[in-house]
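A reminder from the course coordinator: this example appears on the midterm review sheet, so study it carefully.

Given structure:
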């Protein structure tokens, strides 16, 4: 036995697939053919990563059938060894390439499977979330605030549950005053009521600050009004108050002209008619008329702040004068948008509200 032959026998012990006594190129070729037949049978079974790994270990692993063939080259005649090496190598390259292709296919199939189980149908229309928008009252209130803030007024607020004092006494409306009947409406207890106007905020601001005072106070008000197209027991006002030295009714008129032009547009006419409020003297009713329109529209009550109100908060009424007005925000919105019924603002009918998006 040659040295090579005995080596081949030693190696053959480790290889259960090869006959014990293999010599020469033809046996090697037979082995290669055997492996190729086995491969043909195995390829279709490689459907998951476990079978692929088992395949790799069996054929291509360090002790796999193909690497073991190289070890058997020693049993081939020296002059044929090169040829044997090429044959084994070609087999190895072919199987390795096929195997890698198979791995790639298996991974792609696994991904497809994953995608189909986790599938999101991107062509389905999404759940539409409608975007909200401001209520017409809020739109108009903010617009009014913006106009006056541009003129230098601050926005102040006060409580909706108000005391009799701020509602009446401090505004020069004593308990026995006939004007009180219009305003003493929704009482919470003996001393407190839902405010019927925003004028009490004037007093609260004056009590805590010194002139010059330039404020507007928007807010909700309550009155014992029966609901109809122009009356609502709940409504909104914007109060304005300007206290400084040397103010007159002319300043009020100027402020109102600026406001009317900004809010309604150019070409409006304005008319003051006499009115009465206990907290202003003189008091006026302000009317405007659209360009080309027939009728005057009343937009607010206003007047020069009564000296009694000023002295009531400790101001020197000889030194300071000022004016105030109270306008209804619903009124402004109705005029602006041509809304014919104040109840629309409270009913919350989306067909109405959506017109203002
Ligand atoms: N507070 C009055 C009302 O509600 C309006 C007003 C405010 C009048 C300020 C004059 C000055 O009717």
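Designed residues:
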């Amino acid at each position: 036995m040659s040295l090579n032959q005995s080596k081949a026998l030693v190696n053959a012990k480790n290889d259960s697939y090869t006959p014990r006594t293999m010599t020469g190129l033809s046996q090697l070729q037979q082995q290669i053919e055997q492996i190729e037949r086995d491969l043909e049978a195995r390829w279709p079974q490689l459907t998951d990563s476990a079978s692929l790994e088992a395949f790799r270990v069996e054929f291509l692993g360090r002790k796999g059938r193909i690497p073991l063939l190289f070890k058997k080259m020693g049993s081939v005649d020296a002059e044929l060894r090169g040829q044997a090496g090429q044959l084994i190598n070609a087999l190895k390259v072919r199987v390795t390439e096929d195997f890698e292709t198979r791995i790639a296919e298996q991974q792609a199939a696994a991904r497809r499977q994953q995608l189909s189980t986790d599938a999101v149908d991107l062509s389905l229309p999404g759940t539409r979330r409608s975007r909200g928008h401001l209520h017409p009252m809020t739109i108009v209130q903010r617009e009014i605030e913006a106009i006056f803030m541009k003129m230098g007024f601050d926005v102040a607020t006060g409580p909706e549950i108000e005391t009799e004092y701020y509602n009446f006494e401090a505004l020069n409306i004593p308990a026995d005053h006939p004007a009180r009947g219009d305003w003493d409406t929704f009482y919470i207890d003996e001393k407190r009521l839902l405010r019927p106007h925003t004028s009490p905020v004037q007093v609260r601001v004056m009590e805590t600050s010194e002139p010059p005072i330039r404020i507007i106070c928007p807010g909700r008000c309550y009155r014992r009004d029966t609901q109809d197209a122009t009356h609502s027991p709940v409504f909104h006002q914007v109060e304005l108050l300007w206290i400084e030295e040397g103010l007159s009714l002319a300043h009020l008129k100027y402020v109102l002209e600026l406001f009317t032009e900004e809010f309604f547009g150019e070409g409006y006419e304005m008319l003051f008619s006499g009115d009465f409020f206990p907290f202003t003297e003189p008091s006026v009713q302000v009317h405007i008329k659209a360009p080309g329109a027939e009728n005057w529209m009343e937009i607010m009550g206003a007047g020069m702040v009564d000296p009694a109100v000023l002295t009531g908060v400790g101001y020197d009424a000889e030194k300071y004068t000022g004016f105030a007005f109270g306008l209804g925000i619903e009124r402004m919105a109705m005029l602006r948008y041509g809304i014919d019924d104040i109840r629309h603002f409270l009913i919350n009918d989306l067909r109405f509200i959506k017109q203002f998006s």
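The radius of gyration is 48 Å. The longest strand covers residues 234-245.
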